[in-house]
Amino acid sequence: MRTFFRVINSIFFTVALIAAAFCGYMVYSVMHYPQAEHDAEIADIKSQTEKTKTDTTAALEEGEERLAFLQADLRNLGDEGVELADRGESLQTEVEAKQLRLAELEANVALGEDMPGSVEKARKAYADKIRELEEKVQNGETSVRICYWTLDDGPTYITKNFLDALDEMGEHVHVTFFTANEANNSPDEEEMLRREMTSGHSVQNHSYVHSTLASGSVYRSTESFREQVQQQDDWVYSVTGFHPTIFRFPGGYHSWGKDLLPGALDVLEEMGYKWIDWNCNLYDAGAEENLPTSSLEVTRALTQIPEEPIAVMLGHDWNMNTLVAMKTAIPRLMKQGYVFLPLFPESVTMGMNAKR
Ligand SMILES: [Zn+2]
């Protein structure tokens, strides 16, 4: 039993000892260990806080720096943008100005292209009106009389005087010039040709060289005839911008009739030309010694023209006497009810073969 107790005691004692040791250890642990741990943790947190603080400061500094860069970039971009916008605007203005100029030019081109059309339209309207008047005159429905006063072979060195005289007679007096480039060369022939046109007179074709039998150029063959008409047409067009439409044969078609040149009328028709002779004649061309005085020309005009409801007078704007006669005869005939008009291809007089 004692042994038993001793063993029990011994176990108890051992257990008690172990328990005491454990308690002692626990007390020691509680007294010493947690503080160190706490300190370490605190130190650790402090260190981490410091690090975070440092990192944050660095990040902020970096951010500020980056922001500054970005702002600088934005500013640059902004300036560039403003500059680009300005440039864009000025380009746009330039483009718009150019488009406007282009439209203007296109309109001018269209106007230019359309001009012959507009002029032709106006001319046609005028021709229709005069054609109507011609028919009334022919039918005796009006007291008006028409005279187509024609002047051949110019422009000459005195064509200017004829134009001045016609200007003085008023804006309603017009004549027809049957022009021939080489008939009477004068230094101002192109200027005169233009003035004839712009003054409202009719500018027509009398061949280029005007030579008849001497050189044979005009009537040598249908080819040379065509060439002569075409050459004069080209010249008039190059100077005035308008094509003649009526041909007067040098010497007159009646003088030669069909013997003149077989096929000549076909050539004219193919070329779109009308032709005309005359039914009144001043006989103011020919050898100088046989030229009539101006008073004789006036007499011829005042006697022949009233015989014709529609008169086509032949004269020449190289004859000074004709100039003088014209200045007297036209105003007198106007008082008798004559109107002096420019010839046009729709006139009833086209193809007229002269009686005189
Ligand atoms: Zn002639």
Structure commentary:
It is a single chain. The mean pLDDT is 86. Helix 7 (294-304) packs parallel to helix 8. The protein has helices at 2-138, 159-168, 189-198, 222-240, 253-256, 264-270, 294-304, 320-335, and strands at 145-152, 176-179, 202-205, 246-247, 274-275, 280-281, 310-316, 338-340. The protein is 60% helix and 9% strand. The N and C termini lie far apart (193 Å). It has 356 residues and is of the alpha/beta class. The chain has 2 domains: 50-140; 143-340, TIM Barrel. The chain is built from 8 helices and 8 strands. Helix 2 (159-168) links the parallel strand 1 and strand 2 (176-179). It is rod-shaped, with a radius of gyration of 57 Å.
Task: Report the CATH C-level class of the largest domain.
Answer: Alpha Beta
In CATH, the topology of the largest domain is named: TIM Barrel
How is the biggest beta sheet arranged?
6 strands, parallel
How many domains make up the 3D coordinates?
A: 2
Helix-residue proportion: 55-70%
- CATH architecture type of the largest domain: Alpha-Beta Barrel
Integer-rounded radius of gyration: 57 Å
Ligand list? zinc ion
How many beta strands in the DSSP annotation? 8
